[in-house]
Specification:
single chain; mainly alpha; about 70% helix; about 0% strand; globular
C-alpha cells in the first residue's frame, strides 16, 4: 500500500469512527454528514483555551454540538 492509499484508507476509517461516535451520542442517522462537517468546523473554536486533552477534547466538542445543534440529535 502506497502513502496515498494509506491516507485514503485512514480517512475512510476515521469517517466511520466519527459516525459511530455520533450515533452513540444520539445523532439522527440522516444528520451524520452534517454533524461531521460541523465537528470539523467548530473544533478549533470549542477547544480554544481548553484544559481537556485526548478523548476529553473530543467529548467536549460532541457536548458542544449536542447543545448547539440539537436538531441533529434524537
Amino acid at each position: 500500500m502506497n502513502k496515498d492509499e494509506m491516507i485514503e484508507s485512514l480517512q475512510y476509517e476515521l469517517n466511520i469512527v466519527l459516525e459511530a461516535m455520533f450515533l452513540l451520542a444520539g445523532a439522527k442517522k440522516e444528520s451524520l454528514d452534517e454533524l461531521i462537517q460541523a465537528y470539523i468546523e467548530c473544533i478549533d473554536e470549542v477547544l480554544t483555551d481548553s484544559k481537556e486533552d485526548g478523548a476529553d477534547e473530543i467529548l467536549k466538542v460532541v457536548k458542544y454540538l449536542k447543545e448547539n445543534k440539537k436538531e441533529l440529535f434524537s
